[in-house]
Write a structure and sequence with these properties.
Structural class: alpha/beta
Strand order of the largest sheet: 3-2-1-4-6-5
Low-confidence stretches: 166-174
């Protein structure tokens, strides 16, 4: 996730409205603030704006901008979220053909990072599972939106080191 953040032009910070604002979200927000990269705060799993909007407002407490409610399952709010992402790209930088804008999708496990990428693609390219830790490495995926190509980076869920139980993950993070 740190490499993805360092190489990204814009960062999508995925949170989960059902879990609400948790300590891990605050820690990720602090890390993203230190990156000095533009961040779009996305509150996922808002399957009904009318039902969950009062819960979305809680995410203002992270202090990293306006929360954008989306439902990757119901495809709600995704267009508005993408408009915000593209508005944050540097406008005065000339880009070569192979230098597509890169967007890192970060957040805690099971916030819906992989789900949103699959919805943007219109196909199930990255694995989605209820099992935390399914995504272990950053996965770059090309997405075309409004006839422009972007690279979305699906990252593993960010967890505290003392919460990592599998030996392979402990070794990888050393």
């Amino acid at each position: 996730a740190e490499i993805a953040i360092a190489t990204a032009d814009v960062i999508l910070f995925m949170t989960d409205v059902h879990q609400g604002l948790v300590d891990a979200d605050a820690k990720v927000a602090d890390m993203l603030r230190r990156s000095h990269k533009p961040v779009v705060l996305v509150v996922n799993k808002v399957d009904s704006f009318q039902k969950y909007m009062s819960d979305v407002y809680e995410f203002y407490n992270l202090g990293i901008g306006d929360p954008h409610p989306v439902s990757s399952l119901a495809k709600l709010g995704i267009g508005d979220m993408l408009d915000e992402v593209t508005a944050l790209f540097p406008q005065d930088v000339e880009q070569e053909e192979d230098e597509r804008p890169r967007i890192a999708v970060v957040g805690k496990p099971n916030a819906g990072k992989s789900s949103i990428i699959n919805k943007l693609l219109g196909e199930n390219r990255v694995i989605v599972s209820d099992v935390a830790g399914t995504t272990r490495d950053a996965i770059d995926t090309a997405v075309t939106w409004d006839d422009k190509e972007y690279v979305f980076i699906d990252t593993a869920g960010l967890r505290r080191k003392n919460k990592i139980k599998e030996e392979i993950e402990k070794l990888k993070n050393k």
